[in-house]
Amino acid sequence: MRRFTLSLGAALLSATLGLTAAQAQPELPELGTVATSTLSIDKESQIGDFYMRMLRGQLPIINDPVMTEYLNDLGNRLVARADNVKTPFTFFLVNSNELNAFAFFGGHVGVHTAIIDEADNESELASVLGHEIAHVTQRHLARAIEAQKKTAPATLAGVIGSIILAMAAPEAGIAALQSTLALNQQAQINYTRSNEKEADRIGIKTLVSAGFDPNAVPSFFSKMAAKYRFASKPPQMLLTHPLPESRVADARARAALYPYRPVPENLLFHLAKARVQVRYSKLDRDHALFLFDRQLKSGDPVVQDAARYGKALTLLDLERPDEAEEALNALLMKDPQNLFYLDTASDILLMQKRPEKALAMLRQAHKLRPDNSVIEINLANVLLQTGKLQEARALLEHQTNLNGDSVVAYDLLSQVYRRLGMVAERHMVQAELLALSAAYERAIEQLQYAYRQTRDDPLQKARIDARIKELRRSEQEMKSL
Q: What is the β-pairing status of strands 108-112 and 101-104?
């Protein structure tokens, strides 16, 4: 019955907010193309790449192939429905119990694990991603630079330097940029609120277009506002994404304008949430088992399957692999290609000292999905553990060619090269790992070691020399920003 009152509720809220029905409709201005006089898209992407490298050296970024694939699949489902997309997007997780998400140049979106833990469904998580995507597509950082240059003329290098300094603590997010750019206090407040409302409007439109529930936006807002209403220290997300009552009401009014359509629960979201609770939160293991056992009594099969998965992860963490296998087996029989299940089953079998069964399982999965990073990395890890080094090497070299940002693949490949006695190649991989964290000088040192170890291979020497020059150029470009 409540759903049939939404249209009336929208009209009442629009009147309260001073909006006509036409004004409340998600017809949005094309603001994402402004600020091009200061920063080109290519320059934004370059800055974003440098900043991402710095973050890898400063933040507890989660290098979990399963979670990375889930988050990027979800994020890019939204990106595919967004307007003004001018750059590829990359989504990554930060291991933090502080509620926050942030976005920056080059389509980079960071999400704290606490967001997944706090969300009740995938639409709520998608609402956060959609909001951050809108910050990028509307080029709020570039527009802030425009505002700075109008208020207090400065060199581009100086302004970008201010941005990088502001973002050194990324929990501060986009909103913290305003204070660093030395705008007057009222302009800071107005610009931040303008950005947030614009991101809300565009985020809701994208959310609906991608098949999610727009009511997730006011739902998640209300949840945060209620949880921290009397907190002496609100979470960073409420500091960097101010949440006045008018913003909650505005989001509720806009969401109510869309016709209701049921959005089924997505098992993958609940599996991701269980994985975060077990591996990346402070949840006590005994309490986790109690929580998952209670959820197993739910009448919802999606919640039950996620609880079985969470229980299997917890038992594995407690080094009780036989019990973990029992909890996971029913799930694997139901969905043998599920990446969450395959990853955990592989870990269970290794702990049970049954690597050959793990190999058979992963080889079969690899035949069906030959380029999947989760399957290839798990298979390579088992091959490494069983001494099948050349096969592991081939898979990991394939993965690093497909994804040059894969810290896990590079780390495993370094172990393979060490055991194969490939000294120069190991130094080259170590260089790439260091470069991913913007440690260019140390990366160049590793390449110089590799060069000295390369005696009778002029082609490899040429590759190493070219890579040294590339890294030196990247280091100089980063310093010149």
A: antiparallel
